[in-house]
Amino acid sequence: MAEYIRAAVLVEPGKLEIQEFPKPSLEEGALLVKMTMSGICGTDKHGYKGEAVQYAGTPREIRGPYPAVPGHENVGIIVEARHPRDGKITDFYGKELKEGDRIIISPDILCGKCYWCRHTYGYTWCDNIRSYGHLDASVAPHLFGGWSDLMYVFPGSHIYKITEDVSDQIAVLAEPMAVSYSLDIAKGHSSMPNEGFSSGDTVVVFGVGPLGLCHVIKSRLIGAGHIVAIDKSEYRLNFVKEFGATHTLNVDQTSIEERKQFIFDLTDGRGADVVIECAGVPVVMVEAIDMLRQGGTFVEVGHFVDTGEIQLNPHRHLCAKNIRLIGQMNLAYTGMIPSVNLMMANREKYDFDKIVTHKFHFTDALEGLFQSMKPESMKVVIHP
Ligand SMILES: [Zn+2]
Ligand SMILES: [Zn+2]
């Protein structure tokens, strides 16, 4: 008798249900992974709300798709591997993979053949990108996301074997932490006089949910001075104080003018060196740029889906202050294990496991989604 595997399926916006699929048989080079943890990400919340346009205006623009098994921040144990006849399945660093190994799976499967794959090593700029958690679940073998018992991993996926001492909580943060590579780019710009992100700089982070928190942590660990966190949630503002934020501003208790004044007072009237937008609210960009110093760096990382337009004044916002702008979608697949290493090296100082505040079984994924939308949560995960 065929064995069936249950999974949470986002059937259409606003409709998440549990479905059963036949246990997949593996093509050569594929893996079957027993999930140990799968994150609930901002894009999952947007997908549930029907805000599902990604890579808008590029050849790889996608909508949805629905139905899909969500879950792209995935950690699990290999239960089945179909090695190719001419070799073994290896991880990103060439380590041989076998049943029983615990792995992190990068969300994206890239073609390796398009212009972007061949010119931009390390980044997920592929024209033919396919992403776990966003693949059509009506197509066999269906289990292309982590909100399930088992996940099907295609040949050619980026897989990272992890050691026993790495907790699932740290492993599941590898993906959002790898998104913060924009700060490594900003660091690189600091080789130019008074540009980019230099040691001791004042960094402002708008929106300190899990992604904003990762940017606070990264800013702290790569050498920020003041870090100012801005959010509506007092819970989240208190949370980030434990992970390196030196100041917090509650949006509901301050005006735009007061926040701007606070940043200018903190920086001897110059403005912030780096401002990072993780709130996913388009209009925040205007406020963010207004509090930037001359030659400052603005990092836009909060809009992985299309949420609309804003009005900018090219002279006032861009030219007059000579600002540098880093827009970013997705992550550096070369940044996954470095992110784990960075957290492991600092785990005596910061309790990263604590960042996972809520765990839900995949059959309660809807409850998990709602929890992740509440201000009193940090990283919410699916934990079979
Ligand atoms: Zn994510
Ligand atoms: Zn490609």
UniProtKB/TrEMBL annotation:
Domain Alcohol dehydrogenase-like C-terminal residues, every copy: 210-329
The family database entries (Gene3D superfamilies) matched by this protein are listed as:
Medium-chain alcohol dehydrogenases, catalytic domain, NAD(P)-binding Rossmann-like Domain
> Where's the Alcohol dehydrogenase-like N-terminal domain?
28-162
Could you name the domain of life of the organism this protein comes from? Answer: Bacteria
Tell me yes or no: is Oxidoreductase among this UniProt entry's keywords. Answer: yes
Its keywords, alphabetically, are: Oxidoreductase
Molecular function, one GO term:
oxidoreductase activity
Show the InterPro entries listed in the entry.
Answer: ADH-like_C (IPR013149), ADH-like_N (IPR013154), GroES-like_sf (IPR011032), NAD(P)-bd_dom_sf (IPR036291), Zn_alcohol_dh (IPR050129)
Q: Entry's PANTHER family?
A: L-THREONINE 3-DEHYDROGENASE (PTHR43401:SF2)
Q: What is this protein called?
A: Sorbitol dehydrogenase
